[in-house]
Amino acid sequence: MEEKISCDDGHEFKLLLSCPSGLSPSQVSVVFDEAYDRIPHSDPTLEQSISEMWDTRVQQSSSLYNGTKFRYGGYNFDVGNNPKQQPHVSLHLGLTDYRTFMGTNLSPMWERFLVPSEDDCIQCQHTSSPLGNGAVVETFDKRILVLQRSNEVGEFPGYFVFPGGHPEPQEVGIISHEGFQKLNQCHMINSKVSQEMFDSIVREVVEEIGAPADSLSSPIFIGISRRVLNVRPTAFFFIKCNLRSDEIQQLYSSAQDGFESTQLYAVSMSDLENMASKMPGCHRGGYALYKLMVQGE
């Protein structure tokens, strides 16, 4: 289920989960539990560095906001025991925040937070590892939408990426784990978080490329890739858009979050192959997941 790919420039990725047939919302569930939260590191100096790094960054930029994020803590994949049974993925999510993300995954010392292990969740148990999301969007005229990141953004300025961001705990009323311990409340919140996984990627596409939500198909989940550099995980989805690429180019000029990128490209599969060489590792992994989906059709 896991695959590691090396890239010439050192931006490696690992496919944590590949679902080339694509999974609908009914085939993806979530277990949201504090058991999947980050485990503090035993080195107190390393732990203290998280606060120190955050304080330094806040002094440099007063606009930084310590928002909550879902933390990736693994999955269970049930392929089904008979041909009539659909495969099903259960994602394990905890809570983390932007402060801890900056102090662990984005820290210059990020490798010191890792545990030597072949098990991905054990290896990353001390990192924030917020679960990002990305969408491979195919237009009516069979083009794939790719953004070029602004030179003003903190990570990978100028690189090519798929539209995406993060599912947001606050969208489903989650601030902490408190209040969700009862069985019926756990079931309710797990269902809401699962829906947020799919709702959030539609929001990101609408905000970043400007296409209206009613022009987009229901997303299908195609897997999770992880950037080897600072072990950042991202869930990827495939979405069809019923607009032509030239129509989307016009809409992009007034996209809500257009400031995060400088240009929108609508490219063929062969062009996408070439652009993948200048994608962050996690998005290269998204391209690899998309290729597996296409090859399986």
UniProtKB/TrEMBL annotation:
PROSITE patterns: NUDIX
Domain Nudix hydrolase: from-to ranges: 128-295
Keywords from the named record: Hydrolase, Magnesium, Metal-binding
Entry cofactors: Mg(2+)
SUPFAM superfamilies: Nudix
GO molecular function terms noted in the UniProt entry: hydrolase activity
Stored PANTHER family: URIDINE DIPHOSPHATE GLUCOSE PYROPHOSPHATASE, URIDINE DIPHOSPHATE GLUCOSE PYROPHOSPHATASE NUDT22
Protein name per the record: Nudix hydrolase 9
Record gene name: NUDT9
